[in-house]
Amino acid sequence: MAGEILDNKGRGDASWQWPSIHPEGRKFGLIAVAVSLFFLIALDWEIVGWPLMLLSLGVFAFFRDPERVVPQSDTAIIAPADGLVTQIAEVEPPLELQIDDGSGYPGLPAAPVTRISIFMSVFDVHINRTPIGGTVRRVVYIPGQFMSADLDKASEENERQHILIERTDGLKLGFTQIAGLVARRIVPFVKPGDIVAKGQRIGLIRFGSRVDVYLPAGTDPRVLIGQRTVAGETVLAEVGQRGLIEGIAQ
C-alpha cells in the first residue's frame, strides 16, 4: 500500500502487484489499441492488426509506474531513474545550475563535482524521481538535438531540463533530464517553489533517455559503472562520505 512504512526490522508487508499506468501514457496506449482494432475489425488485416496490438501493450508497458520503497536516511541520495550507470566523471555543473537566475536563490558552486549518468533504454521505467527532498529552486528547459543519450556531449547538446533542489539545511543538488535518440519530449511534474519529498515523482522522458546527477562536493558515488539503478530505491551516494569502491562484472 502506498505510504506504508517498510523497513529492515520486519515491519510492514509487501506483495507483488501489477504496476499502474501513468495518466500521461494512457492516451497513447488507447490510441494504439484503437488503431489495432481498426485494422483487425474494420479492414480484417490481421497481419497488421496483431503486431499493432503487441505494440499497444509495449506502449502501456513503457508508461508503467510501479510503487517504490524510498530509503529515508538524511544522508542518502537516491537514484532518479531506472537504468544503467554509463558514466561517472568529475565535471563542473551546467551553467544553468550555477548562474544567478534572478530568483534570489544561489545556484551550485562553479567547481568540479562528481556527475553520475544513468541511461534509460525503452524497456526501463521512465518516471523520474527526486534524489533528495526539499524545495524546487530551478526548472530550466533547454531545446536541443536528439543524438544518442549515452554520448558524453549529449549533456551539452541534447534537449534537456535542469532541476535544482535545496534541502532545509541548505544542501543543494542538481540533476538533468536529457532527451535521447528516440525521446522527443520531457514532461515535468514540478515547478520552482514546489516542496518535494525524497523519491517523489518529478517528471518523465518519453522513449529512451538519460539523467545526470551532480553530487554535492565531498561526496563520492556508491554505485559503479555498469550497475543498474532503480529510481527511488538505489542509493547513489551518502552525503559527505568519501572513498571509491570497485566491482567485478561476472
UniProtKB/TrEMBL annotation:
The active site is at residue 209. Keywords: Cell membrane, Decarboxylase, Lipid biosynthesis, Lipid metabolism, Lyase, Membrane, Phospholipid biosynthesis, Phospholipid metabolism, Pyruvate, Transmembrane, Transmembrane helix, Zymogen. The modification Pyruvic acid (Ser) is found at residue 209. It is a peripheral membrane protein. Pathway: Phospholipid metabolism; phosphatidylethanolamine biosynthesis; phosphatidylethanolamine from CDP-diacylglycerol: step 2/2. The record marks 208-209 as: Cleavage (non-hydrolytic). The keyword ATP-binding does not apply. It is an enzyme of class 4 (lyase). Binds 1 pyruvoyl group covalently per subunit. Its main location: membrane. The keyword Lyase applies. Its cofactor is pyruvate. Heterodimer of a large membrane-associated beta subunit and a small pyruvoyl-containing alpha subunit. HAMAP family: PS_decarb_PSD_A. NCBIfam families: PRK05305.1-2, PRK05305.1-3, PRK05305.2-5. Belongs to the phosphatidylserine decarboxylase family. PSD-A subfamily. This is Phosphatidylserine decarboxylase proenzyme.
